[in-house]
């Protein structure tokens, strides 16, 4: 019993010490587990996912305009790490939306949520983070949870088979790289990192819309109700991005990506209540695995490896 209590204490104490960063990351998982619903409403109203993404992220920049003085002061410190953050975060968001709109949803999600694999590689190469003996088991547990929830035997193994699936895979790589880069760029403030995310997403989406054509017609056709929804989404993205960047700055990259998998749990529950999509046994088992891995994620590294 004493040994069991010691294990439980070892798991919970680090989580308590890092409560604010954990809450920050989980808030991002919650928002992205729910945000599909208003984007779906906008698409049903005739607004493409790319246009909705551009407008909502531009509005996030407007809501975060109070951060501009500090971001401007740090412009000289931005450097290559800042550029990498802009590009990787921007592609993670845009590639995810494009893949989801034009491909098999479950396949794209599965490929995107291979992100823990890329995070292991990026964090080792860029941060020198070395997993302890529990780390690989915890990451395997989280990946198994994602696979159980997302994989369908009739769709085959998770290897890209078309452009949409390559988009999903590369977006997952961008997501992992952006988290590791945010952790690495300790010289940048949370405000600068948040603004980089919005700038990257809007900046990469704009040329895609220009290439796609018809953007002006879409803008003129947006109803007042849709503008209100877009403004709300932008405000939520602004607040959540700040919380998430605080979280990934203060947590190890591998622990953060395990917590981000909570998005699948939130998405599964929200689809059940908002879209009447049934939760089956696989969803419940996968959710339990992801929650278990998240609770144990504080043991990803030994105390020595964390310095």
UniProtKB/TrEMBL annotation:
**One Pfam family, short name:** EamA
Could you list this entry's UniProt keywords, alphabetically sorted.
Membrane, Transmembrane, Transmembrane helix
Per the database entry, which stretches of residues form a coiled coil? Answer: none
Q: Which SUPFAM superfamilies match?
A: Multidrug resistance efflux transporter EmrE (SSF103481)
Q: Where is the EamA domain?
A: 22-150, 165-296
Residue ranges spanning the membrane: these are 20-39, 45-68, 80-99, 105-127, 134-151, 163-182, 194-212, 224-244, 256-275, 281-301
One GO cellular component term of this record is: membrane
Any idea what this protein is called? EamA domain-containing protein
Q: Which organism is it from?
A: Sideroxydans lithotrophicus (strain ES-1)
